[in-house]
Every structure is written in structure tokens, then in C-alpha cells.
Amino acid sequence: MARENHAVPRQYTKQLYLNKTISNTRIFGLKFIKYVFFLVLIYILQFTSIFLHTNYLLKPCENVGDILKLKQNIAHIQPQNQVLFHDTSNLSNVMLNNKIQLIKRASDLKTDMTSSGRAHRDHIYKKFFKVPKNMKNVNCKRIFNGNDTGKYKRAFKNNVTNNVNNSNIKPEEVTPEDYITMARDCSAFIGNRRYITHHLTEEERDFPIAYSILMYTNVEQTERLLRAIYRPQNVYCLHVDAKTDDKIYKALTDISKCFENVFVLNERINVTWGEISVLEPELMCMKALWKRNKLWKYFINLTGQEFPLKTNSEIVKILKAYNGSNDVEATIADFKDRCMTSNPTLPPPYGIKVTKGAVHVAVSRGFVDFCLHDKKAQEILSWMRFSCKIPDEAFFTTLNHNRQLGVPGSYKGYPETTKMSDRRKPYLARFKNRIHSKLHHWVCKGRYVRGMCVLSIGDLPLLAKRPELFANKFHLEDEPVTIGCLEELMFNRTRDEYLGKRTFDTKWHSMLGFVLGKL
After folding, report:
1. Catalytic residue, candidates 204, 220, 306, 393
2. Exposure b/e, 159-178, CB count within 10 A at least 16 = b
3. Which of 10, 75, 171, 347 to pair with 41, CA 20 to 30 A apart?
4. pLDDT (tens digit, 9 = 90+) per residue, 263-295?
């Protein structure tokens, strides 16, 4: 049988070849377009990545913290020797060159901004720290080392000249009238009195503190306390005793008008030692501070006769180490018959065990919230008004040491303050040299008033080494050199912190018993 002829016509073969060529061309074109798109996509992604790391460079640096962020961002952008595109086409070379140029520009900006950071740091240093704050005609360094204390004390007491340089060491008093006059020009007042109106560090800026200051005498001593603890991120409430002269009230009010974060309460309480009136201004300031500012983290209450032993940076670090716990003094052993109700059918509410402790505290925002807004706190306060002899020494400490109340940051352990060498529950909010203290036995180099040592020049070597936040108490009119030297010490430590010459470790604070045992 003959085989059939299946030969394809010539014209059909040509058409088939043409169709196949067109199909291959389309496939090649699509592959080329995909390849180009892939390269462009890589370029866009890399450019975007670099831009995200460098866009911060285009913003102005307002403070040292911005410069530090800038350095961190720049650290991610480093020229690399490896070839990012293995294709040798012109497109790849152009893209690589563009990236190298962008990196070079970022490096140049880094240099410029680092210089700007140094300039900013130099500006802050010159504004606040270049001029030393030294006591006139007094060598505070020798006093802190335990020398010349007797000589300076005798010189001031007798109002005679200093044997060292034959100059009078008694500083000139600043009167309420002087403050009223100075406060008319706020800019000059802030500059001449050398207030630090910059947060200095990001850590301090991000951890504002609320303060209350209760005062009844000596406007200069109160103003110098305010100046020592002032920072623009903090907030300050001042209460002036109703017994205090109206000139002092006006002077402090005028001073407060020079600052957005300082205010004086309009209501004035006649404070009487041992009565609820001691506690009332504290609660009034708590309420005002709560409404005025929502950012502060901790509350510290002071009197006008106290002074810091730690810089603002150190206080911030300590409070951060507290991690929400409250620094409140407490004792049960030395607390007898302070709270006795005349009606036996009205026992202490909520089954509380009343403790005794100083009214001066360093407590978290949550603690303040509980004091002001919790029904249990209000009922306990009402009960103490009529049942406790010295209610100001019972309210804060009782709230902090009865875990069933659920107070934020309160202590779950046994409520008895210990020595500093015992980490269970030391009290760091305040240094006080009591005449009959069972925990500490320091010699009072000043004099005792109501069982409390009024600190003197001779106490400065001890104060310089103490771990407490603040010291109580001082009389400026009796011992101006004492406060003057403490001012110099805090100034020097703050300056050295800013320059990176002084560090502060809070590991010890973070391991305290009342921190680890907080509710």
C-alpha cells in the first residue's frame, strides 16, 4: 500500500516560523520588562530604606537628645564595598552611584549635625554652668572635708571678718520687698537668680516630678529651695501659712508668675503642729497638682526649711529605680495610743493597723490618685480627724502599709523602717537627725528644736555623703553658710553630670525591700 504524502506546503511553513518568532520575541520582551521592573523595585526599596534612616537628619536638632538620636540613626548608614547589583548594565551602575552619593551626603550631614550638637551643648554649658556658683569668701570644699567648720561658724556668729582673706562672710539678706521688685522683670529675675530653665537630659525631661512646698517664714530660704530643685518639666505647688506676713505671700506669688509651672495656693491654712491642719495643705497641693499636670510621675512634699542632697538627675534615677513603690516611713514599735476612738463601736475602718511615720514622703502618682479619689482613703481620713492625736504622722504611712487597701505601690511587708545597712525598709525621702532616734545616732553640730537637729556647718561632711533625697531642717538666718555650701555642692554635681564627669548607680535602690515588696 502506498504511503500517503503528509508534506506541509511551503507557504504554511513560513507562516508557522513567523508566528513562532513573534511569540519568542514577546516572551523575551516580557522577561526584559520584568527584569527592568525588578531592578527599579530594588532601587526604590533601597532608596526608601536610606531615606527612612536619614530623614531625621533634615530636621533641626533642638537639644542634646536629638543629637544622640541622630547619631543612632546615622550609625545604620555606612558605605559598603560589596556590589549591590551584579548586572553590569548602565542602569545598575547609575543606581549604585546614586546610592554612594546619598550615603556621602548623609555622612556630610552627620558631621554638620554633630558639630551642631556640640554647639548646643556648649550653649547650655555657658548659659548655666560656665560661671561657678561659689560661696563668697568661704572655702566650701574644705568644710565638706571636715576642715575650718569652727572657724567659719565663729566668724559668722560674731559677725567678724574671715581670717583667710579679711572679708566679711555674712551674706546680704534678700527681703520680701527685694523679691517683689526683682520679680517685676521676670527675664532678669530668672537670669540673675540663675535658675536652670532647661531639662538638661532626656531622662529628666521624660520623668517630671510634682512638688509641694509648705512655708511660713523666710521667703529667701524658700526661694533658694525652689531654685535648687527647679526644672521646666517639673511642677511646683506652694502654700503660705495663714500666719505668715502678707508681704511674704505677695513676694512668692510674684515669683511664681515668672514661671508657668510654679503656682501659689490662694487658700491659706493656719497650720498648727500636731493637728490635721498640717496635712490639709498637703492634700490641697496634691489636688491642685493632679488637675494642673497629667504627666508627672512622683510626688514629693517639702517644707521651706529643707534642702536637696541629690541633684534632679539623681532624684529621677532613684525614683525610676523605685519602679512605682512608695518611700514612706513607718513604725509600729514606737506607736502607742496615738489613735484611740472615744466610741468603741467605731474601730479603725477596713481593719487597718495604724502606723506612725513622717508626713514627708516620695510617692507614686497612683498613691496620690488613691489619696484623692478612693472612698477608703476618705473614710480613713475622716476617722483619723477625731481619733488620732497627730493625724499628719498617721495618714500617709497607714495607707502605704495596709495591703488590704490596695494602694498602688504600697508595701506588703512588715511596716517598720530599718537602718540604711538593712535593705528591707530604709527611709530615703528625708534625712532627719532626731534627738531620740533608735535607728541613728549622729552628733548634732547645730541645735535641737522640738527634738529635731537644726543642721549646721559642722553637719556638712555628713550630709555630703548621705543617701537621702532631702535634708531637714535648716535655718538660713542662723546658718547661711550651710545652705550656701549645699547650693555650691549641688551646682557642681549637676554640672559634672551634664559634662559626663559624674555618674550615679541605682542598683542598690532597685534591690531595696520596699521596692521588691511593693503591691
Report:
1. 393
2. eeebeeeeeebbbeebebee
3. 75
4. 999 999 999 988 999 999 999 999 999 999 999
